[in-house]
């Protein structure tokens, strides 16, 4: 990786962390304020769903917008939307304004992530660099998932909710500060004389369709683990500290594998990594319900973190290789729509099924689906390898 690419990548990761930390901090602070003011758990669930619901509907328009306007204009718009949404909670910290703020912060984070991911993919010169840059980019959300809630909690304890919302409203402007000096790349022209293609035309490519299906399955596995481990831990009589440590081990393992992957990028093949992760996930889900001690659950959680943490950089690399350059934003929008839709719908489904037949059967059902689908990953092949680009 050349020095110029390292500098650009560092700026983009810092920008990603800044805008995403605003959302993650607000996602912790707003429900906590709602609970302290006496709102029901159902109301808090609606509030949390709004963070993921907005990107479901805005992902495709955001992807097209990024294809047309590049990096800076979408990020500037996202920064403004996130900041205004958070500032509204400073002025009017009512439940309905918190819902509005949740919607704007979720939408802004999704828009910025699509624009940043699209730009990073275009910076890479070949398939190896694609794996490297997306491995580093995948570390960003891990940092912001830690930074946002910790920062918000610290300010809440020492100054109150309004000051926390104010601090979170300032974070997105750091994202713009990092991006404003980044050089825009030339717009990729669409083929001349062709009809305006629908975003759904991308799904007519068999490999792209397989990639989206596999991405959705693995994202659902992440949701299964995050949602059901507290339920399983409660059934086992584990303390809140033990359950938090189990989930924390998963997050640390996912981050560690992503930090390691850039140095292994030249030896990795996307389809092999995805297929191996799916097989490992299916095996771990089969064992999970039999783990009763906190240590056993923590071990399985760490191994699952290694498996699922390795997937996102490979999927992002493959997506950029098999999508026409002028439609990278649209492809990222489709992926974002599927992931956020899963985050909204799957916990409701898992909760209903788990209550009816038991948590163990949810683990086994999802694991079986992923295991049966794992051979699909071996058949993934890039449709169009990104053109070699001269160093900038």
UniProtKB/TrEMBL annotation:
Keywords of this protein's UniProt record, alphabetized?
Membrane, Transmembrane, Transmembrane helix
Superkingdom, natural source = Bacteria
* Topology in the lipid bilayer: Multi-pass membrane protein
Query: Could you tell me what this protein is called?
Result: Major facilitator superfamily protein
Which InterPro entries has this protein been placed in?
A: MFS (IPR011701), MFS_dom (IPR020846), MFS_trans_sf (IPR036259), Sugar_transport-like (IPR052528), Tet-R_TetA/multi-R_MdtG-like (IPR001958)
What Gene Ontology molecular-function terms does this entry list? transmembrane transporter activity
The protein's matches in PANTHER family, at most eight in alphabetical order, are given as:
INTEGRAL MEMBRANE TRANSPORT PROTEIN, INTEGRAL MEMBRANE TRANSPORT PROTEIN-RELATED
Looking up Pfam families in the UniProt record yields:
MFS_1
Q: Which residues cross the membrane?
A: 12-35, 41-63, 75-95, 133-156, 162-179, 238-260, 272-291, 344-366
Oxidoreductase is among the record's keywords:
no
Q: What are the subcellular locations of this protein?
A: Membrane
Q: What are the leading ranks of the lineage?
A: Bacteria, Pseudomonadati, Pseudomonadota, Betaproteobacteria, Burkholderiales
Q: What would be one Gene Ontology cellular-component term for the protein?
A: membrane
Does the keyword Transmembrane feature in the UniProt annotation? yes
UniProt domain Major facilitator superfamily (MFS) profile: residue ranges:
1-385
